[in-house]
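Please check the following.

. . .
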Amino acid sequence: MLLLACTYMSTFAWADDAYLSEEKDILVATHSSVWKPYSYLSDNGQPKGLLVDFWQAYAQYNHEPVQFVLLDWADTLAYMKEGGNRVHAGLLKSAERETYLDFVAPIFNIDGSLYIRNDARGTKTDTLVGGKTVGVVAGSYESNYLSKHYPDVAQQTYANNERLFDAAFSGEVDALVADSQVANFYMLTFDKPLTFVAEQILYTRPIYAAVPKGNQALLDQVRDGMNNIPAEELLRIKQKWVNTERVEAYPAWLIPSIVLVMLLGAVTYIFILKRMVYKRTVSLRRANARLREFANTDPLTQLLNRRGLETYFTRLKPKLSRQQEVGLILIDLDHFKQVNDTYGHMQGDKVLVHLASYLKRCVKKGAAARLGGEEFCILCPTQDLDALIEIANHIRCDIAETVFEFGGADIRVTVSIGAIVSSDVVEEMKQLELDALIHAADLLMYRAKDRGRNQVMLASSQSVNTPIAEI
């Protein structure tokens, strides 16, 4: 057990003489000496904090010694500018810092908030305006943020967070910008949790590890080493240090008032609950109806899609009389790729939408659908093939004569059509399947394309491509 303990402790370097005497370079992690709870020096001079624990975990899981150098914040940045085998334990990105640092990977998120004195909360309408003074740590991201976004606000700078909060609690400043977790920690540490309140969160950003600019080998080494730290270990470290509890001061009458409100609420609870259940039930039914509609509708043209056509077909079959058949007209735009290539897909989509609108008006009994791409379909009850041919050829002629005008462009298209009735596929209506009907019409449509396009092809191998007036 003693041997195992010694092996575990040897993963960390605390400016230990044994490690300093080794020939290999020790990775030095630098950070603030008073940035609680992220990093600080304890009363006996030992590094403590969330980021210290993080880099200790890095040392443990990579079997690599880490030495800590904790300084005032501005000094940590100057220390990194000197280069060497060192890493900044965690800081926010900024354009100025990226000139001398390479950022490795995010570690934890942090909030930057504006805090104002509690007794001034009702009197200050806008703290971040010209003529106001706000306390910040010198060289910090908060200082850079204020300079960039609120250049008219005067900044009172301090060497570190401890001096900033000393000044705030002593009345030297009435407003400050600091990391939310750091501010909460210092206010609890000084036992003054209600002296300042967060007026607004200015930003939420990740803090990154960073190495001196241009040291690619160290950048890769630190990145790989951070990936070796298990996620559960990161969560444990965060839960250990980040205090998420809110500290509130309650007046004596508040709890009895809450109890009274709860009693009054209990009287009306059942009524409110039933009302909510009713409203949610109605909303759920409407949502389900909309979902069914979406599931059966093509989003571009608002025609039925393949699923919707199948549903319509299932409902149509039992309603047909003995003298009626099911007719299917399969429509495919000729050379539609050329339209997209010439005018763009947006104009092509407008042609499809216009064609869909025409098919809706054309179909009196039955349903129009878009099966995909530029392929459309009409499914309808019909007396015989002649009636279906008349509808199909009307569609072919109307489309060929239509000029689509979009954005100053005149677009003309033609269609190839396969038209078929149920008796061409099966003898008994009850045996008819939509897939078989579509497949047969699809073969006819491709036959129409093979014979020159812009025509209607029937199961009898007859081609219809004459104007309506001649039929």
In short: The domain at 2-241 is CATH 3.40.190.10 (D-Maltodextrin-Binding Protein; domain 2). The chain has 15 helices and 19 strands.
